[in-house]
């Protein structure tokens, strides 16, 4: 990936509309402040310009898919919900397709998310397959939370789903759960191998 020069304020001509720009900006700003980073430090880590990051945080520009991915990695944001494309589309009969193991990867300290069907824009539902790398809930700096609802189906291995309002939920291959994404949550693998799950997030 070619780095963007520090003074580059330009955006790719094939920009994707960011999900709810105001919410996206607030999430990025909060994550940056939680890590104690200045605008300059966070922008440098994501290889974008300081002014570009400022505009994103203040909902003054629409970041590309690639820039959102860089910011997620730089700020250790755990949720791929940021990749949901907001808004409604008047186009009917749309279709997207992802071949096996050909999804877009977004890796964090605790998860390896493989985003599926990423070509479609203006969609509310986000499907992805995740490998749960975390082995202890202490590996999460804070609860994962975002707008909407989520469905999770365990494909292989065993895990425990932690949520802020319920007791830890042990799960194994074939189990599924549906929950409010705004409720703090996080998963850890409990089997010898890392658990793999299918997640479907629906923006609220």
TrEMBL record:
It comes from Ruegeria alba. This is XRE family transcriptional regulator. The keyword DNA-binding applies. Gene3D superfamilies: Jelly Rolls, lambda repressor-like DNA-binding domains. Pfam families: Cupin_2 (PF07883), HTH_3 (PF01381). The keyword ATP-binding does not apply. PANTHER family: BLR4304 PROTEIN, HTH-TYPE TRANSCRIPTIONAL REGULATOR. Residues 1-11 have a biased composition (Acidic residues). Keywords: DNA-binding. Residues 1-23 are annotated as: Disordered. Residues 28-82 form the HTH cro/C1-type domain.
